[in-house]
Amino acid sequence: MLLGLNQNIRYRGKLYHIQTEDGGRKNPVITTLVFRDGTIVASRKTSYADILKFERLEEVVRELMREQHLSLIKALLNGELDDKLGVRRADRAEHKHRPAFHKEESIDDIILEHLSLDDK
Description:
It is a single chain. The chain is α+β, with helices and mostly antiparallel strands. It has one domain. It has helices at 57-77, 82-85, 89-94, 107-119; strands at 5-11, 14-22, 29-36, 39-47. The radius of gyration is 16 Å and the shape is elongated. It starts with a strand and ends with a helix.
């Protein structure tokens, strides 16, 4: 079992906590949860049972965790989770100035960009 990833992201004036965990060999599932005020508002699970015999399993699982974690951060910041978050259509229009994030950006790039937009 690998150590998880945790990130706090401010979006539309609210703080969200994104947490990604590895279930380990006995439960080979990567789980990412998005919390707001202690309540799960979105989740994503990916099984890696089909690669348990892979030589570099830890390395591969770590990369899968990072990708899944980053994909939920991107989904949150790009407004893809707005329906789950209860964001009204009128509120969505206010934030269209935020750029879509590109696949090649690192998690650090995305967070720094997000923080710089919040400061404006």
